[in-house]
Amino acid sequence: MTEMTRRGRILTPDGWLTGRLVHDTHIIALEPEELDSEGPMILPGFVDLHVPGGGGADVMQGGDAVRTVARMHARHGTTSFLPATVTAPDEELVRAFEGIGVAQANRGPGEARVLGAHMEGPYLNQTRLGAQPPFARTAEPELVDLVCDGGVVKLVTLAPELPGGLDLVRRFDAAGIAVQIGHSDADYETVCRALEAGARGFTHLFNAMSPLHHRAPGVVGAALAHGEYAAVIPDGIHVVEGALLAAIRAIPGVFGVTDAVSAAGMTDGAYPLGSHTVTKRGDAVYLGDDTLAGSALTMDRAFANLRTLGLSVEDASRRLSEIPAEFIARSDRGRLVPGAWCDLVVLDASETVIEVVVEGESVLSG
C-alpha cells in the first residue's frame, strides 16, 4: 500500500497530538505539526467483541453472511470484531467457526477485520438463556478440543456453576482463550472461584445473570466487587444510566459491545438469530414474548451514548477500542501508536463519524 498522511487532532495513548499520522496498512509515524485549523478528531477504530450479526445477516449462517456483517459494521466505525455464535448443536457451531475462520484469514474490501470468534454458549445456564436458543448443555470433550486447538475462538462466555464449569475455565484459559462469565445463575462464591480459575470478565453485565441482592450478591455483585473487565451494551435499553455509571465506577475495564444481531442496520421487521426469529421494533430487538434479543446497536451510536452519559471523548473512545483490544491481548489494535494496524475513526466537530479506515483502507468517507 502507498504511504499516506492524515492530519488533525490525533488521540494517542498519551493524549491528544495535533499533527499528522503517516501510514500504509500500519501506522508509521505520529508527528506534531502546526495546522491552519484544528482539523478532524482521529480516534482508534472501534473494537467490538460481541457481534452476532448485522445488515440482515447472522454469523451462524457462516460464509458470505460473516462478510455482510463485517461490511455493515465497518460503515459505523467498527474496524475489528469478534463474530459471536449462539447456543446451537455442535455441527452448526463447527460450520459457523469454519465460516468465521475463512473471513478471519482473508479480509475483503470494505470489511472490518475479523479477529476470531466469540463463542457465547453452549455452556450456559438454562434458567438464564435470555434470547439464546434452547441448546444449552454441559461441556463435551470433542467440541472443547476443537475450540482449544482450532485457533478461531478467542473468547468464550460460559456459566461457571455448571458441572465441570471451573475446569472448563481453566482449560480455555490455558489455551489462551479469554473467558467471560455470562448467562449464569451462579452465586457470589462460585463467581469468585471462577475468577481465581482464570475467568477475566463478564458478558453484557447485568443482563442474563443473577442480580445483586444485599444478602445474595450473585454474578453482578461479584463483578462489581472483584471484576477487572466487563462488557456492557450501551444502548440505553439493556442497561440504564445509573447501572452503567455504577459499573464504570466499580470496574476499571468496563468496555462497550453492541451484541448486534442481524436486525442491526435494517428496517423494522423479522430477522434470524440462530434458530430463533427476532423482531426489530425501533431501536430494540425482541423475541415473540418481548424478551430482549441482542440489540440493533452500532458502535458509532454506542460512542454517542457514552458521550451523552457524560464520558469524555478520550474515555468513551478507550472503552470502545483500547480496553476491548487489551482484553483479548491485541496490542496492535485499538491504539494509535507506530507499528499498530492503521484502524481509524475520524470525527467532525459535531462528533459525527465522517471516515472509517481499516488497515489503511478507507471503507467510509463522508
Describe the global form.
Answer: globular
Helical stretch count?
Answer: 10
Largest sheet, spatial ordering of strands: 3-2-1-4-20-21-22
Mean of pLDDT: 96
**Approximately what portion of the residues adopt beta-strand conformation?**
25-35%
Question: How helix-rich are the residues, as a percent range?
Answer: 25-40%
What gap, in angstroms, lies between the N and C termini? 22 Å
Rg of Cα set:
20 Å
Q: How does the helix and strand content classify structurally?
A: alpha/beta
Unreliably modeled segments:
none
Largest sheet: 7 strands, mixed
**Overall strand count:** 22
Brief write-up:
The chain has ten helices and 22 strands. The protein has helices at 64-74, 90-105, 141-150, 165-174, 188-197, 218-226, 241-250, 299-308, 313-320, 322-327; strands at 4-12, 15-23, 27-32, 41-44, 46-51, 53-54, 57-58, 78-85, 113-114, 117-120, 153-158, 178-181, 201-202, 229-232, 253-256, 269-273, 276-281, 284-286, 292-295, 344-347, 353-358, 361-365. The chain has a seven-stranded mixed beta sheet, with helices on one face. Strands 5, 8, 9, 10, 11, 12 and 13 form a seven-stranded parallel beta sheet that branches.
Tell me about this structure.
The protein is an alpha/beta fold. Helix content is 27%, strand content 29%. The protein is built from 10 helices and 22 strands. The strands form 5 sheets. The chain has a 7-stranded mixed beta sheet with strand order 3-2-1-4-20-21-22, with helices on one face. Strands 5, 8, 9, 10, 11, 12 and 13 form a 7-stranded parallel beta sheet that branches. Strand 12 (178-181), helix 5 and strand 13 form a beta-alpha-beta unit.
